[in-house]
């Protein structure tokens, strides 16, 4: 049953005082809990900038493995949140899941060589450059087709002819 309003106010005031005391001690608090206590998926998602659904997917494919509480709920540490933030940013930059897996492993490996990280990033950058070149070629071809089209009321269309392989279609 819900606590009476006065009891709730006392609890909230005590919790706020505990949070202020912890902050004065230099202990990081989150919703009245020590930062080291871990976070649920919602808190971790907020801190990492990812929706819970994405975090669950990353767990499903083995990118992350958060601890579990006694009740079975996920328990995210600050290191987990840092890894999630890395994954979110890497995916936003277009890194593949496998590249993200490698980057996450390198991020966790304090004995890593930055050359390994750079090699992954350079490979991805080369892929982006290839896709940009392909898009520019597509843009040039489509621009050529659009320029060749009269765009009038007549049935002849250079765009359709070009898309059909340059052959005239029979009516």
Overview of the molecule:
By secondary structure, this protein is mainly alpha-helical. Helix content is 62%, strand content 5%. The protein has helices at residues 5-25, 41-48, 52-60, 78-92, 97-108, 114-148, 158-163, and strands at residues 29-30, 33-34, 67-68, 74-75. A hairpin with a 2-residue loop joins strand 1 and strand 2.
Key words describing this protein structure:
about 170 residues; two-stranded antiparallel sheet; mainly alpha; about 60% helix; two-stranded antiparallel ribbon; 7 helices
What would a concise description of this structure say?
This protein is mainly α.
Could you give the topology of this structure?
Blueprint: H1 5-25, E1 29-30, E2 33-34, H2 41-48, H3 52-60, E3 67-68, E4 74-75, H4 78-92, H5 97-108, H6 114-148, H7 158-163
Antiparallel strand pairs: 1-2, 3-4
Spatial extent as radius of gyration: 27 Å
Shape: elongated
- Secondary structure class reads mainly alpha
**Oligomerization status of the protein chains:** single chain
């Amino acid at each position: 049953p819900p606590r009476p309003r006065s009891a709730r106010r006392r609890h909230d005031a005590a919790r706020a005082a505990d949070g202020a005391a912890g902050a004065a001690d230099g202990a990081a608090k989150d919703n009245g809990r020590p930062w080291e206590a871990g976070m649920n998926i919602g808190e971790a998602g907020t801190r990492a900038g990812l929706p819970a659904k994405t975090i669950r997917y990353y767990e499903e494919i083995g990118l992350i493995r958060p601890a579990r509480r006694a009740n079975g709920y996920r328990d995210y540490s600050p290191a987990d949140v840092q890894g999630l933030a890395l994954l979110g940013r890497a995916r936003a930059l277009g890194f593949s899941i496998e590249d993200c897996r490698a980057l996450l492993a390198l991020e966790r490996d304090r004995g890593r060589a930055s050359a390994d990280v750079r090699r992954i990033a350079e490979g991805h950058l080369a892929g982006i450059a290839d896709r940009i070149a392909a898009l520019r070629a597509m843009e040039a071809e489509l621009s050529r087709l659009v320029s060749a089209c009269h765009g009038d009321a007549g049935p002849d269309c250079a765009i359709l002819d070009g898309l059909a392989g340059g052959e005239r279609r029979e009516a």
